[in-house]
Amino acid sequence: MGRRVWTVVFPEGTHTVKLEHGWFSGRRSIWVDGKALELPRGARQVLVDRGSEHPFTLYGHRLLVRIRPSGMKFTYDLVVDGRSVETGELVATPPSVPPGATAEEVARAQIVQGYTRMRQSIRSWGIALLVLGAIHFIGRGFLSTSWGALLILVALASFYFREAAMFVVYATSLAWAAIGNLLGGTTGWSLFALVQLFLSFQTFKEFRAFRAIQAAFEQLSPEETQGEQATRRAARFFPWGSLLLGLMASGGSVIFLGTLVYAMMQGAAEVPQGAGGRLAFILDLGVLGVAVGLGSLLSGFRGKTISGIGIATSLVPMLLVLAIFLL
Q1: CA atoms within 13 A on the CB side of 70
Q2: Structure confidence by residue, pLDDT tens digits, 30-39
Q3: What is the rounded distance in angstroms from the CA atom of residue 97 to the CA atom of residue 317?
Q4: Which DSSP symbol is given to 201?
Q5: Residue range 50-108, pLDDT digits in tens
Q6: What are the residue ranges of CATH 2.40.128.180 in the chain?
Q7: Model-level pTM?
Q8: Nearest Cα residue to 26 out of 167, 158, 205
Q9: Which one, of 1, 64, 9, lies nearest residue 28 by Cα?
Q10: Comparing C-alpha atoms, which of 200, 198, 189 is closest to residue 142?
Q11: Cα 185 → chain centroid
């Protein structure tokens, strides 16, 4: 936990600014003269903390609390009217907060900053998932290549659908990975599953925060967005994508079961070679279908019926695997 307290003296009086920053939780809390400063939703950064800037005004003075990553730790600074309290040096005014900004202008700037932070976070997810997917292929035999393929697919989607709905996809994928590790039975993987469940919960909270920021950003005029442009690609593709993935997953499940039944009728004593890999691929399609469908429903996209059918059909292979495990 990082803490910092600054005292600033204005003609109007002496004031105290206090910052608390959770290194692992990503939570930020700022108090001005003991009163909590309302931060925009989405200010919390859980998985990858790239730092942040929090502007506000006090008796006509422009203040900025700055959190910057520095190796394995963070540095903190308070900027008052363009001058650092820590170093006394002039600091460039962030372009999103014009000099003499009103409270409304600061609020709009925070929305733009939050939206930019969301897109940066999605990009970080995409890079991390690409690396993890590649590791799964390199470690084939120990790690699942079908899950690696799903991670790479989600990673590529992160560079196209840079919207809040992607955080539902991340959270759902993490939750299913945790369920798989819990069913694995070993103590090490079970403990790792608890970490995954925690990260899934935190990622879902990020979705809720970023969804609000994205909705507010979409209400701003082009002049107020400072060059950033909102995209609505997920609203067009997620409902139908969920349905397509669900149909592929449920259809694959029927074919898989039919193949097993036919092999048994032919007197096969063992499961056909490669059946486990095919089932894993079908299962991963179902997981992705559920994730995309939930992202569509929770984001309030049109086509709720289509998304619902997509989720229902995507659950077929997941329920099949759970039934096989329990039996």
Answers
A1: 9
A2: 999 989 888 7
A3: 51
A4: H
A5: 778 888 888 888 888 888 877 667 889 999 888 888 888 887 655 555 555 566 776 77
A6: 2-101
A7: 0.73
A8: 205
A9: 1
A10: 189
A11: 28
